[in-house]
């Protein structure tokens, strides 16, 4: 039932907004008050959802209200995911920067612009939600508590940065985790260091509950073990950042298959990347976020992109050889944001509003950023 998904999404949003990670994000990004207002609005809506579920049987207006609420709550969830994503990017930048640069992260014009953009996104979605909340009042819905209190706990974000300094915990536990990631099988150990790893080990297939995998600054990493990735059945987020030697070129016997439930992928600083591998196509049905940045050889988006009907954000940054988009962009009906930043001038001209060759294909996208 749709209302059960609305109830769960509202619970997830509230769980995130009250978590320590988001309290820190609110403080750092200067949106603490916005988060609080959002929390209060979602809370006020959530307590009447059970009554709304009953009333919709008698009222088409209430049913329409629930459908609109569902759309807005999904967008709220996406915006909060954006904050989490950008904050993780901030931490990665700081991790690789000198201390002085880290202190001044938000002082650069680009970072300041990002902060303003994120703040505007939050205010915009909060305003939409408050409009929905205002509509609620005309139905005189009653606050109700479930007969048996059902909690929707937010699972702790399980993720792995393949970087020794990112493994947090007691020293013994840390060593065990590092050995697990580096061992060629679950029963063997390795004396290698993360910095010298050239292939993600087959032993990773044991991490079947891993949801987030972020691989950062592995200078010796050259390719993935196809067998390792396909077993990560719970994987939702895959980030690969600053692995200069990594090649995703495929041979039939080593074709890399990503888990079908993947929601978010970021590929950054991969010098040899020319296009997305064919093995990525099996994520088309679920992928919501694609970001490709600082890939100087990247020159082509795949034709299967038109199958990504759940894709909400496509960001292409610093890919100077990229001159075209695939046919079928108009079929991406869920796409809400297209960002093309510092790619070829030819591509930017093709996407210009009204005059660009591609504009009829992308005109339905609410937010288009060309820089």
Mind sketching the topology for me?
Elements: H1 2-17, H2 20-29, H3 32-46, H4 49-55, H5 60-95, H6 99-103, H7 109-136, E1 159-161, H8 171-182, E2 212-216, H9 226-230, E3 237-241, E4 264-268, E5 289-293, E6 313-317, E7 337-341, H10 345-350, H11 359-362, E8 367-370
Parallel strand pairs: 1-2, 2-3, 3-4, 4-5, 5-6, 6-7, 7-8
Q: Which terms summarize this structure?
A:
8 strands, 8-stranded parallel beta sheet, 371 residues, alpha/beta
The major pleated sheet works out as:
8 strands, parallel
What is the string of SSEs from the N terminus onward? HHHHHHHEHEHEEEEEHHE
* Spatial strand sequence of the major β-sheet: 1-2-3-4-5-6-7-8
- What is the strand tally? 8
Number of helices: 11
Per the principal axes of the C-alpha atoms, what is the gross shape?
globular
Query: Helical proportion?
Result: 25-40%
Notes on the structure:
This protein has helices spanning 2-17, 20-29, 32-46, 49-55, 60-95, 99-103, 109-136, 171-182, 226-230, 345-350, 359-362, and strands at residues 159-161, 212-216, 237-241, 264-268, 289-293, 313-317, 337-341, 367-370. It has 371 residues and is α/β, with parallel strands linked by helices. It has an 8-stranded parallel β-sheet with strand order 1-2-3-4-5-6-7-8, with no helix packed on it. Helix 5 (60-95) runs antiparallel to helix 7 (109-136). It is globular and about 60 Å long. It starts with a helix and ends with a strand. Mean pLDDT is 77; it is low at 98-103, 148-178 and 182-193.
Task: Explain briefly what this protein structure is.
This protein has 371 residues and is of the alpha/beta class. It has helices at residues 2-17, 20-29, 32-46, 49-55, 60-95, 99-103, 109-136, 171-182, 226-230, 345-350, 359-362; strands spanning 159-161, 212-216, 237-241, 264-268, 289-293, 313-317, 337-341, 367-370. The protein has 11 helices and 8 strands.
